[in-house]
Write a structure and sequence with these properties.
The chain is mainly beta. The strands form three sheets. Strands 4-1-7-10 form a four-stranded mixed beta sheet, with no helix packed on it. Strands 3-2-5-6 form a four-stranded antiparallel beta sheet, with no helix packed on it. A four-stranded mixed beta sheet has the order 9-8-12-11, with no helix packed on it. The chain has one helix and twelve strands. The chain is flat and about 65 Å long. It has a domain of about 160 residues.
Length: about 350
């Protein structure tokens, strides 16, 4: 093996350059000639072990220590501390001895090295805001700006509720109209001359103990809505005697019905449709066919037209609205169902 000592220990004089004899300390003067520094390289190597210390040359780093066992050098201005024994990191690199105070030349350059840069402590907020401060643009300690509460949810709820109310109103109004269309009204009036008449519809009483209407009196008239279709009507007097019983078909979409239970064909009481016209300008002699008597041979009638006033006279006057400066001959018509003696001259045209 190369550079192995011969038997007996130790190297012969002039052994391998740069190595002292085995088992001995370095000899003064070192081994081999000293080298001259080359341009662009580090400081010249010392002449050997225990050689005198060299002075630093301009432009070179501090000289390396003379070798093993050389006394430590004093730190020079601008240089890091001397490296012990020629070993260890270069001046200005590494750190201070463990447990010691930091020395000039140790550690990383200011602002360089590991960890965050100056002004950027660990866990700090974004740049421009000190630790614990609100975001940039808000003064330190100032309350965070509060955004106005959005009322979109309330507005949407309000719109939904209003829409539901409108829909329910439309549905309710439509249902009411539909009910009136399919359930025509029936006005029941007793003209038998006796009180206590009761009327049933399909066996269910719809008018009980009706008073006799000796003259026109809306207070003794009973009004009921009946489902369209064929129904059995039956009238009884106060003793329970059946006055009449028959089947009648009520129609949808009519103007209503009038029923006089037990009325005889030769009754002296009649029902008349009275029509009155109201005009802004009195032209002509009035309307013809003001009074139209319902068929006196019947006791139930389908009304031929719309009625506004039941068992009473029409009003003496009505309000007719016109625009200012407008000249027109508007006409308003009102109708009433009247009860009178069949030969009453006041109900004759």
């Amino acid at each position: 093996m190369a550079n192995m000592p011969p038997p007996g220990g130790g190297y012969p004089p002039g052994g391998p350059p740069g190595y002292p004899p085995q088992g001995s300390y370095p000899q003064q003067g070192g081994y081999g000639p000293p080298q001259q520094p080359q341009a662009g390289y580090g400081p010249p190597q010392q002449g050997g072990y225990d050689a005198p210390l060299q002075q630093p040359q301009a432009g070179y780093g501090p000289p390396q220590q003379g070798g093993y066992g050389a006394p430590p050098q004093q730190p020079q201005a601008g240089y890091g501390p001397p490296q012990p024994g020629g070993y260890g990191p270069q001046p200005g690199m590494g750190g201070p001895p463990m447990g010691g105070e930091p020395q000039q030349g140790y550690g990383p350059q200011p602002g360089m090295g590991y960890g965050p840069q100056p002004g950027m402590p660990m866990g700090a907020p974004p740049m421009g805001a000190p630790m614990g401060a609100p975001p940039m643009g808000v003064p330190m300690g100032a309350p965070m700006p509060q955004l106005p509460a959005a009322g979109g949810g309330f507005n949407i709820l309000k719109i939904v509720v209003m829409g539901a109310v409108i829909v329910l109103g439309l549905v309710g109004g439509g249902a009411f109209v539909w009910y009136g269309h399919t359930h025509p009204s029936v006005r029941i009036v007793n003209v038998t001359g006796k009180d206590g008449v009761t009327v049933t519809l399909d066996g269910e009483a719809i008018a009980k103990d009706l008073k006799n209407a000796a003259k026109e009196n809306a207070a003794v008239v009973v009004t009921k809505n009946v489902a369209s279709g064929a129904h059995k009507l039956e009238a009884k007097d106060a003793s329970g005697k059946v006055l009449e019983s028959f089947t009648f078909e009520f129609k949808s979409g009519t103007n209503g019905y009038v029923y006089a239970p037990g009325r005889a064909a030769d009754s002296k009481t009649c029902f008349i449709v009275q029509t009155d016209e109201y005009k802004t300008i009195n032209v002509g002699l009035g309307n013809n066919d003001r009074f139209k008597t319902l068929d006196p041979t019947k006791n139930i009638w389908e009304l031929p037209t719309t009625i506004e006033f039941w068992f009473q006279d029409t009003p003496e006057s009505v309000e007719i609205k016109t625009k200012k400066g407008q000249s027109s001959s508007k006409t308003v018509t009102k109708r009433a169902l009247r009860q009178a003696a069949c030969d009453d001259p006041d109900f004759q045209d």
